[in-house]
């Protein structure tokens, strides 16, 4: 302290003036490093300089940032009833959108009107809307200065902790926001980690989240390693139950609108999923097959000259406003993906407007091991198609996944699509009401489970899915014991508790059993060719996979 007290202005902010007396008071009452000083008055908090906290007219901000929430056509539960039924108080929530801050080098905003990715912005807008509609008290920050003001961070570079209680029950942020909070909250971040929810598009698996384990076993990436409970990461699609599925909202149609769409469908009209010209490179082969059967439409961005990558026979509309894109999708029979972007909102919006979504199958599946896009992301997930959720949870007739390199298979798929009649469809969990229901359940009480044994090389995600269940990481603590092994009639000569992201598990050949030593490594996603895993599974609500049947 004698050598470093002038290194950060936050020390002076807390009254440190270079004297040993001020050092002792600071270390005792601000950082809680030393025991209380007997001669100090402990009935009142330590004296600090007053500073102005920023305020926000939150509801006005929300109205300017969110998409217009679609009408809820089903009325089994009014959003306003959630609080009336539970009697719970409104929650004070800080939403810090780190990736849009100037300090993170915001790369999204300049591309919004030039065909850039909108998926993250769609999700953030819907999260803000859901929290607002549910009646919670919101503060929104999109700069580090606002973040510091809302949290009451002392001036400086983050060396000093916050004093007093955190002024928020929850903080929704992203990985950029986590880095900024680490820099400016200093020692306080660890103390307040349980309040944080990280909006994380592709997910973070436990092996990557556990900093020491990730470093030791080769799972360390540029992201992850925050040592959070894995359920604190909130994803766009339900990749793994290790994380929480947050989702977003697509527009839901009433019966009259659905009927009108089906009557006005143009059977030989296709719309291409690809707003950037670069996505069209190398696609001439299967586009020629498509063109033999259907009129091809595109929505590729250009400023003055039509992009040369887009074939001349394609009717390119340029970048369309949302309502004009909806009009186009309501006429089209087919919405066709090129393989990128991965797992965006657009295919669900197309299916909800009565399109059949055609997408490429990946051989081999894309992952961090073989594809640059996933390299460095904190997940070992293998992506079998452009949109695995659409393939797995929706499927035929609304979704067709084929090998685009097989011209005969592709040709056959196009002819099948032209002769297939489908109604507009939207999974309940992506409706307005579905998202409100899910967000409410997470805020209020997120936390009987069948126990299954996986096969060697099989994750608990797969093992539970095969039994029409989902893996529930919150229940691992109930199966991480010798009693669970005995219940499966497993013969164990050795039972060890280790730090291993596939434990609890057992090996039949070696008659070895392993229990999990570190709860942060409970993982539904983990797998090993050497072990069969103990898997806690639960049921789920149809169309709302994040919640069990009796969770509301």
UniProtKB/TrEMBL annotation:
Entry keywords, A to Z: Glycoprotein, Glycosyltransferase, Golgi apparatus, Membrane, Signal-anchor, Transferase, Transmembrane, Transmembrane helix
Positions of the Glycosyltransferase family 18 catalytic domain: 10-537
Biological processes per GO annotation: protein N-linked glycosylation
Record membrane topology: Single-pass type II membrane protein
Superkingdom of source: Eukaryota
Protein's cellular compartments: Golgi apparatus membrane
Pathway named in the protein's UniProt entry: Protein modification; protein glycosylation
Pfam family, one: Glyco_transf_18
UniProt-listed InterPro entries: GT18_cat (IPR026116), MGAT5_Glycosyltransferase (IPR052105)
Enzyme's top EC category: transferase
Gene Ontology CC terms: Golgi membrane
The enzyme's E.C. designation: 2.4.1.155
Compositional bias (Low complexity): 47-59
Region described as Disordered: 44-85
Catalytic activity: N(4)-{beta-D-GlcNAc-(1->2)-[beta-D-GlcNAc-(1->4)]-alpha-D-Man-(1->3)-[beta-D-GlcNAc-(1->2)-alpha-D-Man-(1->6)]-beta-D-Man-(1->4)-beta-D-GlcNAc-(1->4)-beta-D-GlcNAc}-L-asparaginyl-[protein] + UDP-N-acetyl-alpha-D-glucosamine = N(4)-{beta-D-GlcNAc-(1->2)-[beta-D-GlcNAc-(1->4)]-alpha-D-Man-(1->3)-[beta-D-GlcNAc-(1->2)-[beta-D-GlcNAc-(1->6)]-alpha-D-Man-(1->6)]-beta-D-Man-(1->4)-beta-D-GlcNAc-(1->4)-beta-D-GlcNAc}-L-asparaginyl-[protein] + UDP + H(+)
Recorded GO MF terms: alpha-1,6-mannosylglycoprotein 6-beta-N-acetylglucosaminyltransferase activity
Cleavable signal peptide: none
Homology family: Belongs to the glycosyltransferase 18 family.
Entry-linked PANTHER family: ALPHA-1,6-MANNOSYLGLYCOPROTEIN 6-BETA-N-ACETYLGLUCOSAMINYLTRANSFERASE B, ALPHA-MANNOSIDE BETA-1,6-N-ACETYLGLUCOSAMINYLTRANSFERASE
Protein name in UniProt: alpha-1,6-mannosyl-glycoprotein 6-beta-N-acetylglucosaminyltransferase
Organism of origin: Oncorhynchus tshawytscha (Chinook salmon)
Gene: LOC112230118
């Amino acid at each position: 302290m004698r050598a470093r007290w002038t290194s950060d202005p936050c020390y002076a902010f807390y009254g440190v003036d270079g004297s040993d007396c001020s050092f002792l008071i600071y270390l005792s009452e601000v950082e809680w490093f030393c025991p209380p000083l007997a001669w100090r008055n402990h009935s009142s908090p330590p004296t600090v300089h007053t500073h102005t906290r920023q305020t926000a007219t939150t509801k006005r901000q929300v109205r300017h940032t969110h998409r217009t929430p679609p009408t809820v056509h089903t009325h089994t539960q009014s959003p306003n009833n959630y609080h009336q039924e539970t009697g719970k108080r409104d929650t004070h929530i800080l939403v810090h959108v780190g990736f849009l801050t100037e300090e993170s080098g915001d790369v999204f905003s300049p591309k919004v009107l030039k065909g850039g990715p909108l998926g993250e912005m769609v999700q953030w807008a819907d999260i803000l809307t859901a929290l607002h509609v549910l009646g919670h008290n919101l503060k929104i920050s999109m700069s580090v200065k606002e973040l510091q003001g809302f949290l009451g961070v002392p001036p400086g570079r983050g060396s000093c902790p916050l004093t007093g209680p955190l002024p928020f029950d929850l903080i929704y942020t992203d990985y950029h926001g986590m880095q900024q909070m680490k820099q400016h909250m200093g020692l306080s971040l660890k103390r307040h980690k349980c309040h944080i929810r990280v909006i994380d598009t592709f997910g973070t698996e436990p092996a990557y989240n556990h900093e020491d384990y990730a470093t030791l076993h080769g799972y360390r990436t540029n992201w992850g390693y925050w040592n959070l409970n894995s359920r604190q990461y909130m994803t766009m699609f339900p990749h793994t139950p290790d994380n929480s599925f947050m989702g977003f909202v697509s527009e839901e149609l009433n019966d009259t609108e659905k009927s009108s769409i089906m009557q006005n469908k143009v059977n030989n009209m296709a719309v291409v999923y690809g707003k950037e010209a670069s996505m069209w490179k190398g696609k001439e082969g299967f586009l020629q097959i498509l063109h033999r059967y259907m009129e091809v439409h595109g929505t590729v961005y250009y400023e003055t000259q039509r992009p040369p990558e887009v074939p001349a026979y394609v009717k390119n509309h340029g970048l369309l406003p949302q309502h004009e894109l909806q009009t186009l999708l309501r006429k089209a029979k087919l919405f066709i993906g090129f393989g990128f972007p991965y797992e965006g909102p657009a295919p669900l919006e197309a299916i909800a407007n009565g399109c059949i979504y055609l997408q490429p199958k990946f051989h081999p599946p894309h992952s961090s091991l073989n594809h640059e896009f996933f390299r460095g992301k904190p997940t070992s997930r293998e992506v079998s198609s452009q949109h695995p959720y659409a393939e797995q949870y929706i499927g035929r007739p609304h979704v067709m996944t084929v090998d685009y390199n097989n011209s005969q298979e592709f040709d056959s798929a196009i002819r099948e699509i032209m002769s297939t009649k489908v109604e507009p469809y939207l999974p309940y969990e992506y409706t307005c009401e579905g998202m409100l229901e899910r967000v409410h359940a997470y805020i209020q009480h997120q936390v009987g489970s069948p126990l299954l044994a996986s096969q060697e090389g099989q994750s608990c995600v797969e093992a539970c899915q095969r039994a029409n269940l989902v893996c529930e990481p919150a229940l691992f603590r109930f199966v991480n014991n010798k009693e669970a092994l005995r219940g499966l009639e497993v013969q164990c000569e050795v039972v060890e508790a280790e730090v291993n992201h596939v434990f609890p598990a057992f090996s039949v050949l070696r008659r070895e059993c392993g229990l999990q030593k570190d709860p942060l490594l409970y993982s539904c996603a983990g797998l090993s060719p050497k072990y069969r895993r103990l898997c806690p599974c639960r049921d789920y609500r149809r169309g709302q996979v994040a919640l069990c049947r009796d969770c509301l």
